[in-house]
Every structure is written in C-alpha cells, then in structure tokens.
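Researcher: Next entry in the queue.
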Amino acid sequence: MLENMNLSGTLYDVRVLEAMRNIRIEDFITMDMIETFIPTAPNQKRKMDEDLIKMILLQLFAAFYSNRPLLFYNDPIYGRSTSAPHMIAIMAQLIEVEENDKVLVLGSKSGYLESIIQDMDKNIQLYIMEKVHEIYNITETNLKRIDAGEKVKIFELDPILDLEKLDIDIFDKIFITGYMKELPDVLKKKVKIGGLICGPFGGKNTQTLIRYFKTGEDMFDEEDCGSVIFSPLITDYKN
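Model: Structure for this entry, 239 residues:
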C-alpha cells in the first residue's frame, strides 16, 4: 500500500513512510477487538487458544489494510472508528509537522494517527483532546504501550468547549479527526499566523478535507484536499 501510494505520487513525505513502518499496528489492536471476531455458539464460552488468536489477528490485519474503516471502539452511540491506513498516511502528510511544532489533535480515535505524527519528528509537542471516556482510555493505553514519551499529552476534555483548559494558548498545527459543519471561530484563534488547521467539513454523508492556512489575524486561505467520509467530532459544541 505504502509503495503504491509513493509511486503514484499520493504519498511523498518520506517521514510518513518511515513512521508507518516503525509504528506496529498490532500495538493498537485490543483484546476487545479480538473478541468481536471470535465465533461462538449461544451460551458457549469463548476459548482463546493461540491458533484462534493468530487467525483473528490475520483477519484484523486484512481488514485494516483494506480501504475500509476498522472500528477500534464499537459504540452504539458514537460508532467511532480509525481511518483506513491510506487515509492515516494522507492525514499525517497534510499536517506538515516541523521540528518543535506544537500540534493539537482534536478527537483521539485510537492514538494511531497521533503516534505516526509523533514518530515523524520526536521534537514536536503533541496535545490530544478526547471527550469520550472509553476512547480516552483506549488511546492512553496505546500511547503508553508504544512509549510515546512526555511530549505527547492526552486530555479527557471536550475538544472545542474545553480549549481554554490547556496550558498552551497558540498552536502551530491543529488537526480535527471528526467532521464538523464549519470551522469554529475559537479554533481560528488557537492557531498562529503561518500555521494551519486541517480537518473534514460538511454533513453526515460526505465531507471535504480542507486545510486552512492562517495568513493574518483574521485571514485564512483554504485548500480543498478531496472528498472524504468521517464520523463526527464528538463535542457538545453546537456547530
């Protein structure tokens, strides 16, 4: 997949290529995910033998490397998912991290995207905001498992309404991992002049991945990065 994206010119940042080779996908597969693949008869207890786990992991890897989202936390209300790997690569590339950047990610998903971004440059400061307690726990566990380090911080906060609770006022880059109808004014104030905000914007069935480049105090240039389908950003903010 990575080689094909590179050859086609879709993926040109070598740091993304290396990061996606460095970060092990299996570190983001939880036992809850494995259990959803276990075939069971009614009232029969699931048996977790080694061969069965291997078979399930192969199915998970096949699902992950297809261009379909893979649910990392199957919740009936939120239905959260992490993006297919080709989209993870594109998202990481679009944020254009540079040394010593302060990067804010709104909506943690599983921590996989954040881990790719952090691996691209170990000197960035990465802040993550996640409102849903269960997803926060999954992400925090995953980040500890891969030893993400002190420069990666995750907060169980509303990604829009609780922005003022962070100890950093202005960021170089902001990435929104769930769709919003439009870019909130409060986020416009949280990125520096010369910085960028990237995320999906639109309605439930289709969105556009947009990069907003801040060119002045209240001025932004927009770049259309293509049509996408994301789940909504979980926030109490009324968009």
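Model: The longest helix spans residues 50-64.
Researcher: Noted, moving on.
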